[in-house]
Design a protein that fits this description.
elongated, mainly alpha, about 150 residues
């Protein structure tokens, strides 16, 4: 099933894409005074990347799977859009829907999701762990590549 690999890659791309604050900007865009939301002084894990509880990791994985579905849906819509204006509008709408997917997730905030995504970018072990959990959740574990461990 080649589509499963694409979905998993999309999920990983979605989790990493959200790790870099466009969603924070999108969700705080309605509040012009939301300059306090960026991580200036409120980040507990300054320098240490893998200090997230298993509950937060599990919530992150569930949110990433939901976010991946939204991302995939909007990628298709953008690919089918007739004009650049329509593509841009769909991209903005898609970001809002991705933020909404994270907001709806139980046990994690957008800021926590962003922190874990950012940590995964800097910590290959965390990224690998998240990828494995996402693949498990999506039912797309493709482990034959690990047989070449020689």
């Amino acid at each position: 099933m080649p589509h499963a690999k694409t979905v998993t890659a999309g999920a990983l791309a979605a989790l990493l894409a959200l790790g870099s604050a466009p969603v924070l900007a999108q969700t705080s865009g309605s509040d012009q005074g939301a300059d306090t939301m960026p991580q200036t002084g409120t980040s507990e894990s300054t320098g240490t990347t893998a200090e997230f509880s298993q509950d937060k990791i599990d919530a992150f994985v569930l949110a990433a799977v939901d976010l991946s579905e939204v991302r995939s849906d909007y990628q298709q819509k953008i690919a089918q859009a007739a004009t650049e204006d329509e593509k841009q509008q769909l991209a903005v709408e898609g970001q809002a829907k991705m933020a909404e997917a994270v907001e709806k997730a139980d046990g994690i905030t957008i800021q926590e999701y962003t922190e874990i995504g950012t940590a995964a970018q800097a910590d290959p072990e965390l990224a690998q762990r998240l990828t494995m959990l996402i693949e498990e959740k999506m039912g797309t574990t493709n482990a034959p590549a690990e047989q070449a461990d020689g």
